[in-house]
Amino acid sequence: MIMRMHDTNSLALERELLAKIAVRDELAFSTIYYQYHKKIYTFSLRLLKSKQLAEEVVQESFLKIWLMGDALIKISNIEAYLVTLARNRSLDALRKQQRAAKAGFTTAKLWTEEHNETEESIILNDTKELLQAGIELLPPQQKMVYQLCHQEGLKYEEAAEKLNLSPLTVKTHMQHALRFLRAHILKNSDLAVAIVLLKIL
């Protein structure tokens, strides 16, 4: 069971949680993640106007927290620290967008090619590969439904029309696909990384 913060302004509780995360306490990490991930995503989305890039910023910001070790103890306000992380990474992404537009490349390609090989970005790339490997293991129709509905953003009715299936069948395929992918990720990665990655499913 995940611990809940009763008082989000309790810096003493935050310091206690950060000290636990410093020694890889996954329960403490989950508490911080569920407390702040929505706020950081919304903040990043306002700056970037892109769900994909906002998700990237959230994932990297929290992976940064997970990997900081003893440096976490020096943080006096985790919310402010996360917002600063997200702002800096979002501004980096915006600068890359501008360069991409001038150079004629896609944002996603430039983000991937120019992204610094920090420890958290390496882990993020590994988890993306893990997710893609899981997608490749899906039965053909589940894979197609997942790609259309989740990756391309089609509604069940739109995917059903495209695949000549009923919306209920599409929904069932999607549920099975998500169940399999979540189990695949939990089985093949550590819990903290899985918590971050599972939010995009």
Could you write a compact summary of the structure shown?
The protein has helices at 11-22, 26-48, 51-67, 78-103, 107-114, 119-137, 140-151, 156-163, 167-188, 191-198.
Structural description of this entry:
It is a single chain. With 201 residues, the protein is mostly helical. It folds into two domains: 1-115, Orthogonal Bundle (Rna Polymerase Sigma Factor, Chain: A), CATH 1.10.1740.10; 121-201, Winged helix-like DNA-binding domain superfamily/Winged helix DNA-binding domain (Arc Repressor Mutant, subunit A). The protein is 77% helix and 0% strand. The chain has ten helices and no strands. α2 (26-48) runs parallel beside α10, α3 crosses α6 and α4 crosses α5.
Supply the CATH architecture of the largest domain.
Orthogonal Bundle
Could you tell me the mean pLDDT? 80
Q: How would you describe the oligomerization state of the chains in this entry?
A: single chain
Give me the CATH superfamily of the largest domain: RNA polymerase sigma factor, region 2, helix turn helix motif
* CATH topology tier name of the largest domain: Rna Polymerase Sigma Factor, Chain: A
Q: What count of domains describes the coordinates? A: 2
Radius of gyration: 18 Å
Overall geometry: globular
Category by helix and strand content = mainly alpha
Question: Helix amount, in percent?
Answer: over 70%
Which regions are unreliable across 5 or more consecutive residues at pLDDT < 50?
A: 1-6
H/I helix tally? 10
